[in-house]
Specification:
76% of the residues lie in helices and 0% in strands. The protein contains 10 helices and no strands.
């Protein structure tokens, strides 16, 4: 993760100024215009990483675990453990990169850079919790949680398509590729787990 998130930072041509308004088309995207390309790349990377891990976790959870609440706990636990591992790796990597102890602001940035990893399991875990409340069946909750994860990947792909300089159909292309990769991870994880 360190290499992926810092590849942009290491690039001397990396843009750190806010996104030009021409790159973002919808009026509701004011937030994207205020975030630097470097920062957005780190957040997108973390969001994709966290969501793919959630999908992988969902693909191996059994129905019996969902009905007693272990499914939601496992998904949330994977998110928290992955975030802690990400922060730890970031701090170690930054220490090596800077050749000195990190200042609090730098450590805080590492904590925030991984925040999308921590957020990725929230909605899928809530959906899984519906089965514990007996509002939906275990299998329905699992499928719905996977659909939520796939929707999250699609949203990430749309963000990338909106800001990446490409032809007009890039939004759909990036969204489709992101979902396809997420589905491939689910299939691979299911295949390896059974």
């Amino acid at each position: 993760m360190f290499a992926a998130t810092h590849a942009v930072a290491a690039n001397t041509n990396a843009r750190t100024e806010p996104l030009p308004s021409a790159s973002v088309t919808a009026s509701g995207d004011a937030l994207l215009r205020r975030i630097s390309i470097e920062r957005l790349a780190i957040l997108v990377s973390s969001a994709a990483y966290g969501t793919v891990l959630v999908l992988a976790t969902l693909s191996v959870i059994q129905s019996v675990h969902i009905s007693v609440g272990y499914g939601a706990e496992l998904v949330a636990g994977v998110g928290v453990a992955t975030w802690v591992a990400h922060v730890y790796a970031e701090l170690l990597g930054e220490h090596v990169h800077r050749q000195r102890l990190m200042h609090w602001d730098e450590a805080k940035a590492a904590l925030l850079d991984g925040l999308p990893i921590l957020c990725a399991p929230v909605l899928p875990a809530l959906v899984l919790s519906l089965a514990k409340l007996d509002t939906v069946s275990e299998q329905s909750a699992r499928v719905a949680a996977m659909l939520v994860g796939i929707a999250q990947l699609l949203a990430i792909g749309f963000v990338v398509g909106m800001v990446a300089p490409a032809r007009r159909g890039a939004l759909l292309i990036f969204g489709g590729i992101t979902v396809a990769i997420g589905l491939a991870v689910v299939v691979l994880t299911t295949w390896l787990g059974h």
